[in-house]
Write a structure and sequence with these properties.
9 strands; binds iron/sulfur cluster; TIM Barrel; two-stranded antiparallel ribbon; 34% helix
């Protein structure tokens, strides 16, 4: 007899199941759109050099990046997803860099264009950004699409500790994330936060406390959980090559998630349990497995440890 996992049932609220339920079993895929944005943590308005784990290659100025147009990117992305995965519905995902870092009228033209392509098969718009690049006007713009599409706003939380955020040159405090969460609190947007586990100076207890912090905000609907990985082209990459430091092994990371996920509020949907850079960019940790193999390893590890999301969630810890 198989385990629940063999029948696709994971011990946590996972995004695949969420999408299946929400869109009547249709095959929904995210199509990545690069709007040619840069980032205030690179161009000097907030900082220079960017977050130390971030790959500078993705910050080449728009003109020299020679991006295909939004239309070309989306049409090609949809075509690939249909051919390779029999995709039926799409979420347009503005992912690279800071996708609200431009005047609102410009953002509107870009989002409008993206959502006009094969529009009857688009179910959602997803926009990744920094908490300090969000204001009421941008929230209102994103909300204006919510009568036709599900709109999610993804913000980097990374760590809940300002010391860490300073050490990684984030150029943004945890209070700024909290402020952005408050701004969007009563909006129609689905809010997602992105975390990174494994900064070498953070202890396990410090990282487990991220769950308590996330749980405090009922407006957080999605999380993306990542382990720290070191990529070529990043400041951390240079430092790591000079002086390697401890990073998560896959087994250790699985064990960590097995303690973290039970503490997480049960209604939160986990979009990702790890991050994986392209192997030609990845310096460490190299777990030597394909993405699907890592996912299976983690899921089996969670199942065998009976690490059920929310089983140790304590509303009384909320302040
Ligand atoms: S991680 Fe995000 S905020 Fe940091 S430099 Fe890269 S794009 Fe900018």
């Amino acid at each position: 007899m198989g385990t629940p996992l063999d029948y696709g049932q994971k011990p946590y609220n996972h995004y695949g199941a969420y999408l299946r339920d929400k869109y009547d079993g249709k095959r929904v895929f995210k199509i990545i759109a690069d709007g040619g944005f840069t980032c205030p943590n690179r161009d000097g308005s907030k900082g220079y050099g960017g977050c130390t784990y971030c790959n500078v290659d993705s910050f080449t100025p728009e003109l020299s990046r020679k991006l295909p147009t939004i239309r070309e990117q989306i049409e090609q992305g949809m075509e690939r997803a249909i051919k390779s995965y029999a995709a039926e519905k799409f979420i347009i995902y503005f992912q690279p860099n800071t996708n609200t870092y431009a005047p609102t009228h410009y953002l509107k033209s870009l989002y409008d264009e993206a959502l006009s392509i094969n529009t009857e098969n688009i179910v959602g718009l997803s926009v990744g950004t920094r908490p300090d690049c969000i204001d009421f006007e941008k929230i209102a713009l994103l909300e204006s699409y919510s009568d036709r599409f599900d709109v999610d706003l993804e913000m980097g939380m990374e760590s809940i500790y300002n010391d860490t955020l300073a050490q990684i040159n984030r150029g943004c405090t945890h209070e700024e994330l909290v402020q952005a969460l408050e701004l969007a609190k009563n909006s129609k947007l689905d809010l997602c936060v992105h975390t990174i586990f494994g900064f070498p100076w953070e202890t396990k207890e410090m990282m487990l406390a991220y769950a308590d912090e996330i749980n405090r905000f009922p407006q957080i609907k999605f999380v993306k959980l990542h382990h720290l990985h070191i990529v070529e082209g990043s400041i951390m990459g240079v430092k790591y090559k000079r002086e390697p430091f401890k990073l998560f092994e896959l087994e250790e990371y699985t064990q960590f998630l097995a303690e973290f996920i039970p503490r997480l509020r049960p209604d939160i949907v986990i979009q990702r349990t790890f991050g994986l850079a392209d192997y030609d960019l990845l310096i460490a940790p190299n777990w030597g497995l394909k993405k699907s193999e890592i996912q299976l390893y983690i899921d089996k590890g969670l199942e065998s440890r009976v690490a059920i999301q929310g089983s140790q969630y304590q509303p009384s810890l909320l302040v």
